[in-house]
Amino acid sequence: MTLIENLRAEARAAPESGIVAVMNRGRDRDGMIPLWAGEGDLPTPTFITDAAARALAGGETFYTWQKGIPELRQALARYYVRHFGRSFAEEEFIVTGSGMHAIQLAIDAVAGKGNELVYLSPAWPNFAAAAGVAGAVPVAVTLDQSGNGWSCDVGKIEAAITPRTKALFVNSPSNPTGWTADRETLQAILDLARGRGLWIIADEIYSLFHYGDGRAPSFIDIMADEDRILFVNSFSKNWAMTGWRVGWIKTHPSLQQVFENLVQYSTSGVAQFMQRGAVVALDEGDAFIVEQVERARAARDLVCGILAATGRARFTVPQGAFYLFFAVDGITDSRAAAFDIVDRANVGLAPGTAFGPGGEAFLRLCFHRRLDQLEEAAHRLAKWMTSV
User: Fold this and answer.
1) CA distances from 358 to 34, 90, 208, 346 (A)
2) Residues of the signal sequence (predicted)?
3) Does pLDDT of 386 surpass 80?
């Protein structure tokens, strides 16, 4: 028996990222315009990095609160008052080592071997992969796509539920589609979860990246205090902190000790100097978020206009997040297309095959970058479309 055969089957089955495979193809090419990853091109602003640097220089390098320093949990409570209009105690927040870590802990808390977790697809692939590593079974329910855009049929979610189902994972606004659940859809999902005794893992990382009137609708708008909802989030997108790997869980205060224990036995906490930067991001970063969203809106409109003019691209203008999920007439294998675009257009996109059922014919373009670079990338893509 080989070494790899001695590993857990769930570990062996963890899939290679379909996004990283394309990145590896083109990351070192001269002139490459990389639109494959889910991040903007701005570095973390100095008002955040300066706070972290001061804390680092001041010796805040020791073990700290595993659930997060009190100042950060209090800042999270203030953030929710400002943006969601609801007051939560600091005991309802757990600081995690990234949004991905928050998702892993949420899965660990509600599901294990043989349990099922229902999620909406196309989806960011890490949730389904993390569920599989935990021994649970991810069950995809595809969003519907038509000329009117992406939509969620809650009846399809209900049909996917079995006695083994433990939770529903809802990412809105969605990566990669930009689909954003309206209040009525969220209420229908919440009613279903309540009726079936299921948890909801709510990934609302893009709630402020919304191109409608204010932030996106949230389960926070309709939930009761005792609802079984775990909110997972991250500092990565709003404050240009992708490399910091700091996130949080918002949960019921009675669950604080459980999640603190899960942090203890996974990362044992987030570095205190990084948390100091996160406090400042929350308390002083609202204007930066507004600037980022308006920058992304202009970028979205630019890219959509250029690709639509080709007559070959099919897409719905995204309501939220900062991705264009588009198909090209005549292209059915998005993985092969993504590699071809790297080779012939020198533009990096993520293939829709990486995002699960319903995404196979699509490509994902991250438009959260400066306009001149996006304009060049869009014209290169338009030229590629006319040649295939």
Assistant:
1) 24, 39, 26, 26
2) none
3) yes
